[in-house]
């Protein structure tokens, strides 16, 4: 198993990046990977139930994406508001950072905003002259690779149909394919992990073991933990769900109901102790998400599957098609 960053790269034609969702959520294609033997099969997402066992339990992430993106009144500064720290005080990301150094000011909704602190990873702590609900008139924080501004359609489509707990600044995209009808046909339960900006942070070290994940908040209710413990097999929907479950497992093998944070970084070789199968989207080259899926499927087999998906013109990334690893 490789820990070299360059071994988690692949070429992707620009035209395969999905800029917008399909008309219907369940129209996505699904590449099915059978790990033993290493076999690849082409299917449709709406056929998901046909690939599952009667005793499988789907576990999904029910975080809700915040309308966290705002622009300054002069439209010169792009803000991504990550967390409200107190009255009129927020943690955020800003672009371009060079214009918003310590002490710099601008206005949002005609309310003055000042950079109070610049954190080590580039985030800003900002103070406003008065308390404003910055999410009330914000827009959906689409990933940079989408390459466009969000619009009214994204308010619905960059959100799962089961989103409940507000707190994410990125969608758990494997869940975007589900409709209420499909979900009603499959035994399932929900955990919560609020996806943070660390999802988009690149890995800079050639030795990926040196990379450090940012902590993200998660929670598992008692009834959910009990349901997972009773299940014969667990199908994790998305990498965020996998990180919650693998973080929450105790030495006795049980899942502990809890609220906490996880900075678990999953890369090969990693021993999965909870998740038996994985539904996930296609991920960026050199990303921590690709590394997690490589640990689950095997890096060489996974990259061979990605090459097959590219040949067959699958749609990639957040609004793209999906992959089921059995």
Supply database-style keywords.
326 residues; alpha/beta; Thrombin, subunit H; nine-stranded mixed β-sheet; 17 strands; 2 domains; globular; QueA-like; six-stranded antiparallel β-sheet
Shape: globular
What strand line-up does the widest sheet have? 2-1-17-16-14-3-12-13-15
Distance between the termini: 20 Å
User: Low-confidence spans: pLDDT under 50, at least 5 residues?
Assistant: none
Question: In which range does the helix fraction lie?
Answer: 10-25%
Number of domains: 2
Radius of gyration: 20 Å
Report the total helices: 6
User: Would you tell me the overall average pLDDT?
Assistant: 95
CATH superfamily caption of the largest domain: QueA-like
Please count the beta strands (DSSP E, at least 2 residues each): 17
Q: What's the CATH first level of the largest domain?
A: Alpha Beta
CATH domain fold name of the largest domain: QueA-like
Element pattern in H and E: EEEEEEEEEEHEHEEHEHEEHHE
How much of the sequence is in beta strands?
25-35%
Secondary-structure arrangement, i.e. CATH architecture of the largest domain: 3-Layer(aba) Sandwich
How would you characterize the largest beta sheet?
Answer: 9 strands, mixed
